[in-house]
Amino acid sequence: MKKNLFIMILMVAMVSLYVLTGYAGDEKAKGKSKFMVVVSHTPEQCLSQLDEINAKGVDLLNKFDWGCKAGDHTGYAQIESENATAVKNMLPMDVQSSAKIVKVNKFSPAELETIHKSMKN
Q1: What is the pLDDT of residues 71-87, one digit of tens each?
Q2: DSSP character at residue 26
Q3: Nearest to 88 by CA among 31, 33, 54, 37
Q4: Full-model pTM
Q5: For 74, phi and psi rounded to 5 degrees?
Q6: Per the domain annotation, does 1 fall within a domain?
Q7: Phi and psi dihedrals of 39, rounded to 5?
Q8: Per the domain annotation, does 93 fall within a domain?
């Protein structure tokens, strides 16, 4: 009985560590990274740019959140892909040159602690 309880507690601890360190669903394990994409346009270009992104596929359009109705003619998306070039190629040609594409990541508390320790040396 005690052995089973110990194994169960150990398993719960391992799963918790796995989730808390960010490895659950980690896209790096799948060869993908997360990118923040920011595309801006003028009010006059608004409908045209939305149409162009929609023409690339409803999946791409659905990845974007837009500030247009609030007067901020900017689209924001998080896209998972192999690299920034692949993300750029998902966008319409006339959007590609002005799009800001940044690889983003999350930090775990353990990673922050490691960074702080390395800065003290």
Answers
A1: 999 999 999 999 999 99
A2: -
A3: 37
A4: 0.70
A5: -140, 140
A6: no
A7: -125, 130
A8: yes
